Amino acid sequence: MEAMNMTGKNDSSYAINNAMNVLFTKLDEAIDDMENGRVLTIEEAWKEIDAV
């Protein structure tokens, strides 16, 4: 039973690390876009949000 608990902890830790890597990648992309002037107006942003 202890082996199963350890596996569950490792899977959870991996999932959290993976999610954090995705988050930081998206933040890096957003910062690059902002620095290079690739931004949306507020109207364009709301249209994107409404489409979702």
Q: Could you provide a short overview of the structure?
A:
The protein contains 2 helices and no strands. It is mainly α.
Order of helices and strands: HH
Which oligomeric form is depicted?
Answer: single chain
The total beta strand count reads 0
- Average pLDDT works out at 85
What is the global morphology? elongated
Radius of gyration: 18 Å
Helix count, DSSP H or I runs of 4 or more residues: 2
Structural class: mainly alpha
Our estimate of the beta-strand percent is: under 5%
**Unreliable runs:** none
Q: Helix content range of the residues, please? A: over 70%
Task: Describe what you observe in this structure.
By secondary structure, the protein is mostly helical. It has helices at residues 2-35, 42-51. The longest helix is centred in the middle third of the chain and has 34 residues, at 2-35. It is elongated. The mean pLDDT is 85.
Topology:
Elements: H1 2-35, H2 42-51
Defining traits:
single chain, 52 residues, mainly alpha, 85% helix, elongated
